[in-house]
Amino acid sequence: MSALPEGFEPLEPFVDGWALGSADERMRQRLASAASEREAFFNAGKDLVPAALALLDKKSFDEHDPKEERLMLLMLSMAHVAQAVEIQQDDEPMHAHYARFITITRASADDNP
Amino acid sequence: MNDAVPGFEPVSKEDVAHLGTDPVPAGPYYEPAYFELEKAAIFRRTWMQVGHVCEIPEPGSFMVREFECADASILVTRVSDTEVRAFHNVCTHRGTILVEESAGTRSRFSCPYHKWTFANSGELLSAPDFDKFYVDKADCGLAEVAVDICAGLVFINLDPSPEQGLREFLGPIAQKLEGTPMARATAFSEYVYEVQANWKLTYDNFQENYHLRFLHPRSGEMANGPDNPFGYPERYEFFDPHRTQTIWSNPQAQPKPFQLMAFMKVAEFAMRDELDMVTRDYYGVFPNLFVLGTATTHFSQWIMPIAADRTRSVVRLYWIGEDDCASRRFAREFSLATALDIHSEDRAVIEAGHRGLASGALRHIHFQSQEALCRHLFNEVDRRVQAYKAQQQSGGDVA
Ligand code: FES
Ligand SMILES: [Fe+2]
């Protein structure tokens, strides 16, 4: 059984690690992951983002089925991981060393109090 | 706006020399005694942000905020659609902290100790066995704190009779803040971090671009260029204790492919929300807030002094409306991740700066002309501290 909508099979291996329910968890996964894991996820996902967002934009969040919900969470993780892979590159380990002191206390994507 | 004009001209040394050119004493950046003076001279008598109206959206909403810089806990309540009140979060019976939650919806508050119960408008509604007291209920309302709103931000002033109203205090900055997305915001994303450093060192890090190319070689790439290798701003302005700078952006910047795709999404929603796409201003609001008002990278940073050597930064990205589609949700998460990256890189130097100064090795520090905003903050702080000391020494009533 596939965990994602049709057409997003290349992202299946990343669902367990990266479909995370809060922005703080997504950031922490970016900081905790190995460079090879980040690169594998980013490379598998970067060209799929426009198609994924176009698909997800067709429905309201309430109407997303579990596969679409997972795809949304993967897209949000891409927003974090892209900073590491595309922008920080080999500076990421140093950056991650400092970023771990930051806590995301609220995000528009999360269920906030 | 001249972002298409090549040959960037930095603000000249002469232009900001009116702020002074001497070295600045080091003590105020670490001494506990100076921090105590700041509490009395500034934090207990100046308008300070306590939150945003979207945190108290409906009658009965409340929020509690700790102001370590004034040893105060503050309760802000929305009594009605048009009325917001603020109080010391302190039971008037024997002083117990009244509300322990940081936010919620409740129109009355009962003290855990002996169950005195207050309305969200402050009056004492009921108190068990009140006949045994020697006082009237009407004289037992919560201690009120001055509160007012500008640009969606809720401000308080702990001075029992503030010298100025909020609008007067903010001056021309008020109108500028009203033009930022924050003024229309209904939601926000937020991240928090503490540093082992004085609040002015924390603030100053975000008031100068001199360090940009050294600390943000990657994340700051878009903010400097051959014409302006340090990414200095185009302009500085000073409005009494407040200050602004107009951010320069590199017309030749080359975003990375994924970054470009995400920026296009961010820009699309900024335009849909009819944000001001031209202004690129930073507003430093005295004493402890700054707001970056650009349409595509907007955030506020609230610098909360905890002790002479400890500071909490609360960074917020304000949003107009809830996430209404996947693309908007993605764009907001990308903006959040982008801002967070830049902040995380500054932490180590802020702490290292405090450690160095607190050793007592230096009597003075130096600000160059492109650190004018740092000097301005010091001037405004120190003027108040010295005036307070003089008042104390002359035995004046400083309430
Ligand atoms: S201290 Fe609050 S009811 Fe007694
Ligand atoms: Fe910085």
Question: What report would you give on this structure?
Answer:
- The complex is a heterodimer of chains A (113) and B (399).
- With 113 residues, chain A is mostly helical.
- Chain A has one domain.
- Chain A is built from 6 helices and 1 strand; from the N terminus they run ααααααβ.
- Chain A has helices spanning 15-18, 23-32, 35-45, 49-57, 66-88, 92-99; one strand at 103-106.
- In chain A, α4 (49-57) packs antiparallel against α5.
- The N and C termini of chain A lie far apart (34 Å).
- In chain A, 40% of the residues are buried.
- Chain B has 2 domains: 1-46 and 167-399, Naphthalene 1,2-dioxygenase Alpha Subunit, Chain A, domain 1; 48-161, Rieske [2Fe-2S] iron-sulphur domain (Rieske Iron-sulfur Protein), CATH 2.102.10.
- Chain B has helices at residues 13-16, 32-43, 166-170, 172-178, 199-205, 212-215, 257-272, 326-344, 347-358, 372-393, and strands at residues 24-25, 48-52, 61-67, 72-80, 83-88, 103-105, 108-110, 117-119, 124-126, 144-150, 153-157, 187-195, 235-239, 242-246, 281-285, 289-293, 298-307, 310-319, 364-365.
- The longest helix of chain B is centred in the C-terminal third of the chain and has 22 residues, at 372-393.
- In chain B, β7 and β8 (117-119) form a beta hairpin.
- Bound molecules: FE2/S2 (inorganic) cluster and fe (ii) ion.
- The site of fe (ii) ion has 5 residues of chain B, from loops.
Keywords:
heterodimer, A: 113 residues, mainly alpha, 6 helices, globular, B: 399 residues, alpha+beta, Rieske Iron-sulfur Protein, 2 domains, 7-stranded antiparallel β-sheet, 10 helices, 27% helix, binds FE2/S2 (inorganic) cluster
